[in-house]
């Protein structure tokens, strides 16, 4: 699976994508999903 992740510098910018970016994105998606599930159960 790690072969699928593209790590490196975005062309034309100084932005460096690291593995931590993917972890933060996954954490945000999981947090959003949990929030939606909890709010859906209470209504």
In words, what does this structure look like?
This protein is mainly α. The protein is built from 1 helix and 2 strands. The chain has a two-stranded antiparallel ribbon with strand order 1-2. A hairpin with a 6-residue loop joins strand 1 and strand 2. The longest helix has 24 residues, at 19-42. The mean pLDDT is 82.
Succession of helices and strands: EEH
The whole-angstrom Rg is 15 Å
Mean pLDDT: 82
Low-confidence regions: none
Key terms:
single chain, 43 residues, mainly alpha, two-stranded antiparallel ribbon, 2 strands, 56% helix, rod-shaped
Would you spell out the secondary-structure blueprint of this structure?
Blueprint: E1 8-9, E2 16-17, H1 19-42
Antiparallel strand pairs: 1-2
Task: Describe, in short, the structure shown.
The chain is mainly alpha-helical. The chain is built from one helix and two strands.
